[in-house]
Amino acid sequence: LRTQLEFKERAELLETSKIAQKIFKISLEKKSNLCVAVDVDTADKLLDIAEKVAPHICILKTHIDAINGVTDSTINDLQLLAKQYNFLIMEDRKMADIGNTVKLQYKKLVDWADLVTVHSVSGGMMLKGIQEVINENTDHCRGVFIVAELSCNGNLISEQYIKETVKIAEEYKDIVAGLVCQSHDVISSPSLLQLTPGVNIKNTNDNLGQQYQSPSDIILTKGADIAVVGRGIYQDDNPAEAAKVYKESLWNTYLERVSN
Ligand code: BMP
Question: Tell me, what's the ipTM?
Answer without folding.
Answer: 0.99
